[in-house]
Write a structure and sequence with these properties.
Helix content of chain A: 10-25%
Structural class of chain A: alpha+beta
Largest sheet of chain B: 6 strands, antiparallel
GO cellular component, one term (chain A): maltose transport complex
Order of helices and strands of chain A: EEEHEEEHHHEHEHEEHHEEEEEEEEEEE
CATH architecture of the largest domain in chain A: 3-Layer(aba) Sandwich
Number of domains of chain B: 2
Strand order of the largest sheet of chain A: 6-7-8-3-9-10
Largest interface: A-B, 24 and 17 residues
Radius of gyration of chain B: 30 Å
Protein name (chain A): Sugar ABC transporter ATP-binding protein
Number of helices of chain A: 8
Number of helices of chain B: 15
CATH superfamily of the largest domain in chain B: MetI-like
Membrane topology (chain A): Peripheral membrane protein
CATH class of the largest domain in chain B: Mainly Alpha
Distance between the termini of chain B: 31 Å
CATH topology of the largest domain in chain B: MetI-like fold
Strand content of chain A: 25-35%
Shape of chain A: elongated
Shape of chain B: elongated
CATH class of the largest domain in chain A: Alpha Beta
Strand content of chain B: 5-15%
Oligomer: heterodimer
Order of helices and strands of chain B: HHHEEEEEEEEHHHHHHHHHHHH
CATH topology of the largest domain in chain A: Rossmann fold
Number of strands of chain B: 8
CATH superfamily of the largest domain in chain A: P-loop containing nucleotide triphosphate hydrolases
Largest sheet of chain A: 6 strands, mixed
Radius of gyration of chain A: 24 Å
Family (chain A): Belongs to the ABC transporter superfamily.
Keywords (chain A): ATP-binding, Cell inner membrane, Cell membrane, Membrane, Nucleotide-binding, Transport
Distance between the termini of chain A: 40 Å
Structural class of chain B: alpha+beta
Chain lengths: 361, 350
C-alpha cells in the first residue's frame, strides 16, 4: 500500500516557479514532515496534495489512483489549517460533524464518532460551545478532531502549532505524537520549526526554493546532511561552518594547519571546501592538542549545558556546547578540539563529501 | 426601565449639572424635536376632522367643538361658553345664528331660548380622535387590499433579491474566473443608470411578457440590485478563505458551502440588505404607478396618491393612511436596528 506518490510535481504562478519538480513517495502510516525556511514552497506543496492548488505539471497519486486533477472534496484527505479555520457560527459538535454530514453518514454513527474523537482530545465538555468561546489550545484540538472523525486517507497539517504559545506548543506536539501512535494513519505535517520536525517525524523532507534538499529519518539528516543547506538548517544552535581546503597530500587544512585524523583525500588539492562541525562535537581541551583557540564573545549558561560563542583567528565564528556548567568567561581564550568522527565536509557546490560518497571528478 | 432612565439622566461627573450637560441636552432635545416633531404632528393630525385640519391657528392635539343633544331638537347642537350680561358664564347650545345675534338654549332647561350677542360666546372644545379617518378608507377604498399587495410585493421581492444577490455575490467573491472583474464592473456600472431612463424599455418588456397589472411586474424587474450584489460581495470578501477551503476539504458541495458557511457568516450584510430592500420596495412609487393601473393590484403608495386629486385633496384620509403606510417600516426598523448599526459599520454602506 503506497500512501502518496508525487511524480515531478511542478507549480508555476505565471512566470514564477514555486515548486520546481518534486518526486516523493510516502508510505502508508508514515508521519512525514515538510520543513524549510519561509517561502520554500512547503505549504504550497501541501495545498497541492490537498487539491486546493492546481498542479502545473507532474502527477499526484493517492493509494495508486491518480488524483492530480481531482477536486479537493473527492480526494478523501483531511487538513488542519494554521488558522484552524473552524466555522465560527457552529458549535464544536457541528464543526466536527460537518464533514460526516456531507458524506451522508447516519446521525447515530456521527454522534458516536464525534464523541469518540472528543473523548480522545478531551473536548467532551465543550461540544456545545462555539469556537469563539474556546482557548487557542482547545480550538487547535477541535481542528484536529474535525480531521480525525473523518478517518481520512491522509492527514494534512499546515503549521498547526504556530499560533500557540511556546508552552502549549510543546504540550500539543507531544499530544500529536501520541495521537499518531494511537490512530496510525498517514500524516503530512508542514512546519518551519525544526524541533517539531525532529520530534514528530518518521521522515523529514527538507525543502528549499521549491526543491527537495534531502529526505530521511530525523537523525539521518542530523548525522549525515547531504548538503550545506540541510547541515545549516537542521540542528540548533547551527552547525559551525568553517572554510577549509585540501593540500597536495590529501590532508584537510583548517586555518592553514592540517587536521590530523580528519578524513583524507575527499577533494582535489586546492579545492575550497567547507568544514562542518556541530557545537556539541567541539570540545574544550589542553592548548597543546587544540585545533583552534577561540576568543570567547558570549557565554549562555542554561544550567545543564553551556553555549559558548567565540571567534578563532582568521574570523572563524565558533559555537561550542559544553556539558554542565563551566567557569569560562567572556574575553578568555578557549582551546578547542573537533571530534574527528563527526566532521562534515562540503564542496564548493555545497554537496557533502564523505569517504563513502566518492568525489566527482 | 432603570437603564433607560439612567441613560436619559446621564450627566458629566456626579455633582451638579455642568454647562456641557445643559448644552448636550439642549442639542439632543433639538434633534429629537427635529426628527420626531413632524412624525408626531403627522400622527396627531391624522386623527383630526377635516374641519380641524383647516383650522387657523392650528392646534397640536386633535380638538373639536363639543356638541350636545337637546330635547326637542333633532340635530346635536354645538356647545358654547357664554358670558352673560351680568358677568356670569353659562354653557349654552346654539340653536341658530342670525347676523350678530345667536339664539341659544340651555341643555338643562330646553324649554326657553336665550338671545346672545355672537361675540360673547366661545366654543367649548374637547379632545376627539376622528378614528373614521382610518376606518373609512380601509372599508370604502379597499385599503386593506393595497396593504396586502404592498406586503406581498415587499416580502416576495425581498426574498428573491436576497437569494439572487447572495448567489451573484458568492460567485463574484469566492470563485476565480476569467472576466470576474469585468462582470463586477458591469454590475456596478448599472448603478449609474437612473430608473427614469430605463422606465420605457422595461415597460415594453413587461408588456410583451403580459405582466402589466400583475404584482410580478413590480417584483421581477428589480430583483437583482447592483447595490445588493456589491454590498454582499464586499462582505463575503472578508470571510477567511481558509473557511471555504476547510469546507471543501470537508467534502461540502458548493451549494452546502453557500448555504451552511457563507450565508450564515454574511448575516450582518444580509440584514442590512433586507432592511434596504424592504424600504425600497415599500416606498417604491414611480414603477408601480406605471405598471399597476387597476385598483385591485395597486400598492399602498399608489393608493395614497388617489387621495390627492386635481381639485381637492382629502387630507384627513391621506394623513391617516400615511400613518398606516409608515407603521410597518417603523416596526421593521425597530426590530432590525441593532443589525443596521453593526451591518453598516462592517459593510461601509450608508
Amino acid at each position: 500500500m503506497a500512501g502518496l506518490e508525487l511524480k515531478a510535481v511542478r507549480k508555476d504562478f505565471g512566470p514564477v516557479s514555486v515548486i520546481k519538480g518534486v518526486d516523493l513517495s510516502i508510505a502508508d502510516g508514515e508521519l512525514v514532515v515538510f520543513v524549510g525556511p519561509s517561502g520554500c514552497g512547503k505549504s504550497t506543496l501541501l495545498r497541492m496534495i490537498a487539491g486546493l492548488e492546481t498542479v502545473s505539471d507532474g502527477a499526484i497519486r493517492i493509494e495508486g489512483a491518480d488524483v492530480t486533477h481531482m477536486p479537493a472534496s473527492d480526494r478523501g484527505l483531511a487538513m488542519v489549517f494554521q488558522s484552524y479555520a473552524l466555522y465560527p457560527h457552529m458549535s464544536v459538535y457541528a464543526n466536527m460533524a460537518f464533514a460526516l454530514e456531507n458524506m451522508g453518514v447516519a446521525k447515530p454513527e456521527i454522534a458516536k464518532r464525534v464523541q469518540r474523537a472528543a473523548a480522545m482530545l478531551r473536548l467532551t465538555d465543550y461540544l456545545d460551545r462555539k469556537p469563539g468561546a474556546l482557548s487557542g489550545g482547545q480550538r487547535q484540538r477541535v481542528a484536529i478532531g474535525r480531521a480525525i472523525v473523518r478517518d481520512p486517507k491522509i492527514f494534512l497539517f499546515d503549521e498547526p502549532l504556530s499560533n500557540l504559545d511556546a508552552e502549549l506548543r510543546v504540550a500539543t506536539r507531544k499530544e500529536l505524537a501520541a495521537l499518531h501512535a494511537e490512530i496510525g494513519g498517514t500524516m503530512i505535517y508542514v512546519t518551519h520549526d525544526q524541533v517539531e520536525a525532529m520530534t514528530l517525524a518518521d521522515r523529514i523532507v527538507v525543502l528549499n526554493g521549491g526543491r527537495i534538499e534531502q529526505v530521511g529519518a530525523p537523525l539521518d539528516l542530523y548525522n549525515r546532511p547531504d548538503n550545506l543547506f540541510v547541515a545549516g538548517f537542521i540542528g540548533s544552535p547551527r552547525m559551525n561552518l568553517l572554510p577549509a581546503t585540501m593540500d597536495a597530500s590529501g590532508a584537510l587544512l583548517l586555518a592553514g594547519r592540517a587536521l590530523a585524523g580528519a578524513p583524507r583525500g575527499l577533494a582535489p588539492a586546492g579545492e575550497r571546501l567547507t568544514l562542518g562541525v556541530r557545537p556539541e562535537h567541539v570540545e574544550a581541551c589542553a592548548e597543546a592538542e587544540a585545533d583552534l583557540v577561540a576568543q570567547v564573545d558570549l557565554v549562555e549558561r542554561l544550567g545543564g549545558e553551556t553555549f559558548v560563542y567565540g571567534a578563532a583567528p582568521g574570523d572563524l565564528a565558533l559555537t561550542i556546547r559544553l556539558d554542565g556548567q563551566t567557569a569560562v568567561a567572556r574575553r578568555e581564550s578557549l582551546p578547542v578540539r573537533f571530534s574527528r568522527s563527526h566532521l562534515h565536509v562540503f564542496d564548493q557546490t555545497g554537496q557533502a563529501r564523505r569517504p563513502d560518497i566518492p568525489a566527482r571528478s | 426601565m432603570t437603564g433607560i432612565l439612567r441613560l436619559l439622566t446621564a450627566r458629566r461627573g456626579a455633582g451638579r449639572l455642568h454647562w456641557t450637560d445643559w448644552a448636550t441636552y439642549a442639542y439632543l432635545g433639538l434633534a429629537v424635536l427635529l426628527m420626531f416633531g413632524p412624525v408626531l404632528w403627522l400622527v396627531l393630525s391624522s386623527f383630526k376632522t377635516p374641519a380641524a385640519l383647516l383650522e387657523f391657528p392650528p392646534s397640536f392635539l386633535p380638538m373639536t367643538q363639543k356638541e350636545v343633544r337637546v330635547e326637542g331638537y333633532p340635530q346635536p347642537l354645538p356647545l358654547f361658553s357664554v358670558t352673560m350680561e351680568d358677568g356670569s358664564t353659562r354653557e349654552l347650545a346654539q340653536v341658530r345664528r342670525v347676523g350678530l345675534i345667536a339664539q341659544m338654549v340651555d341643555p338643562k332647561a330646553p324649554g326657553t331660548t336665550v338671545r346672545v350677542a355672537a361675540d360673547k360666546r366661545q366654543p367649548v372644545r374637547e379632545m376627539a380622535f376622528a378614528v373614521s379617518n382610518y376606518t373609512e378608507p380601509l372599508a370604502k377604498y379597499d385599503f386593506l387590499r393595497f396593504l396586502e399587495n404592498s406586503l406581498f410585493v415587499t416580502l416576495i421581492a425581498t426574498a428573491i433579491t436576497l437569494v439572487i444577490n447572495s448567489m451573484a455575490a458568492y460567485a463574484l467573491s469566492i470563485y476565480e474566473f476569467k472576466g470576474k472583474t469585468l462582470a463586477m464592473l458591469a454590475v456596478i456600472g448599472t448603478l449609474m443608470i437612473p430608473i427614469t431612463i430605463v422606465l420605457v424599455p422595461v415597460y415594453l418588456v413587461v408588456t410583451e411578457m403580459g405582466l402589466v397589472n400583475s404584482l410580478w411586474a413590480v417584483i421581477l424587474p428589480g430583483a437583482a440590485t447592483p447595490t445588493g450584489v456589491f454590498l454582499l460581495r464586499q462582505y463575503m470578501l472578508t470571510i477567511p478563505r481558509d473557511l471555504i477551503e476547510a469546507a471543501r476539504m470537508d467534502k461540502a458541495s458548493e451549494w452546502r458551502i453557500y448555504a451552511r458557511i457563507v450565508m450564515p457568516l454574511s448575516a450582518p450584510a444580509l440584514a442590512v440588505l433586507t432592511i434596504f430592500s424592504i424600504m425600497w420596495r415599500w416606498n417604491d412609487f414611480l414603477w408601480p404607478l406605471a405598471v399597476l393601473t387597476k385598483s385591485e393590484v395597486q400598492t399602498l403608495q399608489i393608493g395614497l396618491n388617489a387621495f390627492q386629486g386635481e381639485l381637492q385633496t382629502q387630507w384627513h384620509y391621506l394623513l391617516a393612511m400615511t400613518v398606516v403606510t409608515l407603521t410597518p417600516v417603523a416596526i421593521v426598523f425597530a426590530f432590525l436596528q441593532r443589525f443596521i448599526a453593526t451591518g453598516i459599520a462592517n459593510t461601509g454602506m450608508k
